[in-house]
Amino acid sequence: MAEARRVSFRNGRFASRKTEEAAWRRHQAAAWLESMVGPFGLTHCPSEQEFVAALRNGIVLCKAINKIQPGVVPKVVANAPCDSQPSTAFQYFENIRNFLVAVQALKLPSFEASDLEKDNLDAGSVGKIADCVNSLKSYQERKKCSGTYGPVKYMKSPLAPRSAIHVQSENVTLGSSTPQKCLDLTEIDAEGQSSQNVGPNMEEAIGKLQRIILDCMISCKENLNQDALKKDPVTLVGTILSNQLEKEQFKPLLQLISPEGAATKNEPNQQIECSNSQNENRLRLLEAQESELLELKTMFQEVKVDFRSLQTQFQDDITELGHNIQGISKAALGYNQAVKENRNLYNMLQEVRGNIRVFCRIRPLMNSKSISSIEHVGNDGSIMVCDPYKPQTTRKIFQFNQIFGPTTTQDEIYRETQSLIRSVMDGYNVCILAYGQTGSGKTHTMCGPSGGLSSNDLGINYMALNDLFTISTSREDVKYDIRVQMVEIYNEQVRDLLSEDTSSTKFRYKVFKQWSVQPSRCKDVPSSVPF
Ligand SMILES: Nc1ncnc2c1ncn2[C@@H]1O[C@H](COP(=O)(O)OP(=O)(O)OP(=O)(O)O)[C@@H](O)[C@H]1O
Predict the structure, then answer these.
(1) Rounded distance, CA 354 to CA 145, Å?
(2) Does 521 lie in the same domain as 489?
(3) What is the pLDDT of residue 158?
(4) Fewer CB within 10 Å, N side or C side of the chain?
(5) End of a domain among 230, 258, 286?
(6) What DSSP state is assigned to residue 84?
(7) Helix (H) or strand (E) holding 442
């Protein structure tokens, strides 16, 4: 995330610098064109659109190149006066075409005519136009400096794409002398003013110089002694000139040739200023890149340190996690052993309590006029019954594991049975059997008075199934499969109570050794949802 932000920031800065650089090139080109042809309606810092729109008719470009190389574009189609017919786009295109021919003849970077016609400008084409104009500027400066139309080194932005500069020929080379060292004697008249006419002035100045030296030598020859004549010619001329040039009539000449003189100051200094400003721009660019590099280096170091600290932290966490897992696995092992022991103890207890337990539930009297046959219920599970009409002869005592009175609830009955349900889940076989004569309350106890429709008075069957599902859900390490069969045995007929086909619900039961109903005829219903 941080890296992406850094890359985006860097790209943003680079793009912004590139835009500034392009704007600077346009500004240079526009300023130079204005200096050549006068104001032509362009702002100081023109946008790409403004720049191209101002040059689109080619008039400014043709005028500028004609100033440098008079007559190189012989016919320039100018803006038509208001009252006459306006010039066509084709005529303007002629201007551009002629200008480009002239530029190519000068072996300067060029651009495509279509670059000026595009509605959707791209930075590359506008940059090419600006580069072309700036190369003309350099050419003109060069020409001013050397007084010739020699080869030129044109300006190019360091950020401009290489393709934007269209080098016409390998022959384009640097001049042998640098502009700063040139001494242009021809541009200064006697008052030290600049002149556009270079060639004739140069010849005139050399002629003057020759005449002066000649005059000096003639005037001095009488005064020369034999020692002076023995000197070499260069020293001799130097001596003569140093003596004579102090005189008043030679001062303009001294001013003319002196490196400190105004004549040598103006134009070369302009070139130096121009070159200095370019160098300053490049220096600023370099400094910016250098500071960006330093910034990147610092960021890289920070990321490296962060990465190392994260690596160490990660290793510590892994080690700690390993210790924790070891502890947990030990605890889990101990827990499993404890659970296993607990189950064994529990089932042993069930066996101690008796594998077969018989409970007696006394049904309440259905009729208030009825007389109870129960005479006594003991705390040890004994019960004494008799025929109320013949109590002396019919008294009998029975012994049970537990006796539940007529007011005992369904929950109290189930609580005594519940411990066996857990043994089922541990793999023990359990059977809960209700036995008694008709109307004694077997269905009431096993299914509940509502037959499972109400959750208030559920019988043992439903409550046992609920516990089976609860325990199977809580034991995640064991997968239980719970199935249900429900049959009725009546008058020696077995009826499958869960069969949907009522015609075939009855079948004769087959008694095996274990007293089980033949399973093939009975339907297993898989149960997956608790009641
Ligand atoms: N503990 C009890 N409390 C209240 N009513 C009871 C109780 N036990 C049985 N009854 C009632 O006695 C009647 C007969 O009970 P039930 O149908 O359960 O007997 P049964 O043994 O299933 O009879 P059968 O063998 O004929 O099916 C029912 O109306 C039932 O509501």
Answers:
(1) 126
(2) yes
(3) 43
(4) N
(5) 258
(6) S
(7) helix 442-446
450: Cβ contacts below 8 Å, ≥ 6 apart = 457
Structurally, the chain folds into a number of domains equal to: 4
Domain that holds residue 526: 481-531
Both 249 and 166 in one domain: the answer is: no
Average pLDDT of the residues of the chain: 75
Strands of 135-244 (E only): list them.
none
pLDDT score of 418 more than 60 = yes
Going from the Cα of 445 to the center of ligand 1, the distance in angstroms, rounded, reads 8
Final residue in a domain of this structure, among 175, 206, 225: 175
Q: Which of 363, 368, 457, 489 to mutate to test the pocket of ligand 1 (most atoms within 8 A of CB)?
A: 363
pLDDT, position 257: 52
Is residue 472 pLDDT above 60, yes or no? yes
Which residues contact residue 236 at a Cβ distance below 8 angstroms, ignoring those fewer than 6 apart? 228, 229
32 with 149, same domain?
Answer: yes
Is 442 marked as binding a ligand? yes
Taking residues 21-50, what's their average pLDDT? Answer: 87
By DSSP bridging, strand 525-526 and strand 483-484 are antiparallel
ipTM of the complex: 0.98
> Two tokens at 285?
């660019």
Give the binding-site residues of ligand 1, using a 6 Å CB cut-off. Answer: 363-364, 436, 438-444, 449
What percentage of the chain reaches a pLDDT higher than 90? 21
Strand residue runs (E) in 415-485:
483-484
Residue 202: both structure tokens together:
């140069």
Say if residue 19 is in the same domain as residue 161: yes
Q: What is the pLDDT of residues 425-452, one digit of tens each?
A: 888 888 899 999 999 999 999 999 887 7
Same domain (yes/no): 399, 523: no
Rounded Cα distance between 421 and 464, Å, is: 6
354 is in an annotated binding site: no
* Residues whose CB is less than 8 angstroms from the CB of residue 200 and which lie 6 or more positions away in sequence, other chains included: 186
* Residues 234, 166 within the same domain: no
Residue 315 in marked binding region = no
Least confident of 4-13, 191-200, 458-467: 191-200
